[in-house]
Amino acid sequence: MNPRGVSEAASPWRGLSRYQHLVLITAWLGWIFDSMDATIYALVMTPALRELLGPRGTQENIGWYGGIVFSTFLVGWALGGVVFGILADYLGRARTLVITILIYAVFTGMAGLAHHWWELAIYRFLTALGIGGEWASGATLVAEVWPESLRVKGAGLLQSAWGAGYFLGAGLYLLLSAAGWRVMFFVGMAPAAVAVLVRLKVHEPEKWVAARRAPAKSGRLTLAELFAPGQRRDTVVGAALAFVAVFGLWGATNWTPTLITELLRPRGLDAAATARVVSYAVMSLNAGAIVGYLAFAPLAEHFGRRGAFLIMMLGSAVTLPLTFLAPSSYLGSMLLLPLLGFFSNGIFSGFPIYLPEIFPTRIRATGGGFCFNVGRVLAAAGPFLTGYLVTRLGTFARAASSVAVIYLLGIGILYFARETKGQKIA
User: Fold this and answer.
1) Distance between CA atoms of 248 and 260, rounded to whole angstroms?
2) Domain tally, the chain
3) Residues with Cβ within 8 Å of residue 414, at least 6 apart in sequence
4) Which ranges of 58-92 would DSSP assign to H, the alpha helix?
5) How far is CA 405 from the centre of its chain?
6) In this predicted structure, what is the pLDDT of residue 270?
7) What is the dihedral of CA 187, 193, 195, 198, to 10 degrees?
8) Domain containing 364: what range?
């Protein structure tokens, strides 16, 4: 029984303190702006590159250079996730959260000042350093502060920020597209206010403080400990699962705005009308994504972590080609996009649940940051590959649909994954 005499089983949410709510809210706000930032480029890629490339701004070149910028962004995301994940184990989760939010806020604004495609690529790389690091520190912070009985549900709520961020990005594009693509990047500086909130209100988790005070069990760096004999398998499997999810998302699903633009081209819509319908499509995709984010937690509690990942990968393998190839109209796409979002985005709720369970406190942020982000180095080939396939297959729909095969690889990887259902984080 809790101090108020209400059993945790009868009313588990009442066991949360005001501070635990605050931690979730601040991490959630950080993630929502992460997601908004990632969405901004997908929405403005075509008009931005058309301007930056000038006379060379053909559909093929936009696909090619757009893929390069996407890939550069993913490499930065991977590097930031690994580096700042390590720093979060040494400096603390809250301190690292502040640093990473400031990094991605500042360089998002700088992207609005780009005058060449390669300048945009550099700013997106630097932005991604902060985004990758913010995921690792935020996920670990919530996992260590929330009570064990609600940790899985808290992770699902935290991941829902990504869907909300897509909505925010699409809504801002709907309102501000007429002002030009640069304004969208300037708005991306808003998360700096969240960094101030974290700095003032959030302190380091007790689990981390205790782990730092305890005598070190190994003289090795936290990154080296990930590959110790008892930890190596979990590290490799966690990174491989993240690679599959990221490759599928950035190699296919996140090309949805371009797919819709391509589908609507025969109608001859003007730029304002195109921006409107693209925004609605992204909202449709992410309405399904939010449901998927929230659904993963109960699926993981009922079917286990492996079972939940399997459901999401099977669904992604089916709905991706169905969504990109089957519709011949905008309405058809709008009906299928929520299903695609449910599976290909919803799978990401598994990582703030599963990764903290396979690493001890002293290396938890390092492990989570490494696994979730190192796969991005390989997954960075996804947008690049899609851009290349556009030149070979002729359409974004055919190119993106071919990426669905990656989920079959993910199903094979699940055979080696360790089930952690019912396991408390140490």
Assistant:
1) 18
2) 1
3) 241, 306, 309, 310, 313
4) 59-91
5) 20
6) 67
7) -140
8) 16-416
